[in-house]
User: What shape does this take?
Amino acid sequence: MDRYAVAGNPVEHSQSPFIHARFAEQTGQALEYSRLLVPLDAFVPTVQAFAADGARGCNVTVPFKFEAYSAATRSSERAQLAQAANTLRFDADGWFADNTDGAGLVADVQHNAGCDVAGRDLLLLGAGGAASGVLGPLLELRPRRVVVANRTLDRAQQLTRSHQALAERCGTELAAAALDACGSGYQLVINATAASLHGAGVPVPATVLARGALAYDMMYGPAAAGFLQWAAEHGATGRDGLGMLVEQAAEAFLVWRGVRPQTAPVLAQLRARAREAG
Ligand code: ATR
Assistant: This one.
């Protein structure tokens, strides 16, 4: 049986094995998908051992997305733009790196949440692996303006610099900002920071939200709860990253298996499981 896994640290709460098992059933593919807990200082040897053991690929999660990209011999254009990968395929001639996070976010925002990003003002919070994976695909939707705001301004500036040419091609104004000077009245605010994992609150004032804005947290479960509550308290529509998780997984499944599974039934099952658990 073809084997895959999600490689990260931590990975014990990952929903990816459940999602890929549903995709495999749905498409009639024989595969096994597990969790690979990777020591923080041993990403490459651990994944090499997994590949040498006959595995076909893996997803990559925190904190290894930059390392996964660097370790690959070939990569997709979207992974090159992000300089980060969430999907590795072990080919005969080496590792192929891709990044399906942005496509996943875009599918969830546009199709599942019904938010048309073209012509809108967008605030992206964070400039780490999560933010860099989604900036390119967001720009391709041709928003009017994108501001990347980060605690460390330098990192936001680096990220906007590497995406400036794409922004110009898309006719989008792209800028970097500090969290305390990132403007106000955005129709879409996307949280790609790890602030909640460190016990911190939402790192920007509620004035960033336009009336009726979509406030999107790329996290899900307890890690997204504070942001969703903040959104609700300030008249925005909150959405967690569960839909993005399923959509990025479907894109990874396509990279590995050549077929894109249906996401809606799997997202509905995950939401039902979350309701039962909570
Ligand atoms: P990931 O791959 O999840 O993006 P990361 O590369 O460590 O992980 O990036 C985490 C992001 O969350 C960064 O943008 C980080 O800001 P810095 O670049 O200044 O480190 C942001 N972040 C983490 N803790 C935060 C906090 N308490 N307040 C605001 N931003 C925070």
User: Anything to note?
Assistant: The longest helix spans residues 153-170.
